[in-house]
Amino acid sequence: MLTKIMKWVSIAVLLLAALRVPSAGYQVFLEFVVCVSGLLVITQAVRAGKYVWAAGFTGIMVLFNPLVPVVLSRQTFLWLDLMCLVAFLASLVVLKRRPDTFNALDSRWGLQDRIIVKP
Prior knowledge:
By secondary structure, this protein is mainly alpha-helical. The protein is 71% helix and 0% strand. The chain has five helices and no strands.
């Protein structure tokens, strides 16, 4: 759930950056949010076995690293910003949370309607 929320927050701040909201403080906030969200997406992708997605978001995380910022021209940053925005939107679809195994087994065997009462 946290990963999904952070993805939406990243999408929002990347969209604001694309709309040219200028501010030095905002740039640090943008880098921090996108970097943390990228780390969460990497974790989600590795757990799902989608290593290409993990590699792609590792690149995003490195580019938006607030500790060692990468300085780019405004034009390059805009294209990078839009590509990252699309990547976060795509990750919402591709990296969905997998259903809980026990819930899937329960529904398969019809156990979801049974209530177990222990004495």
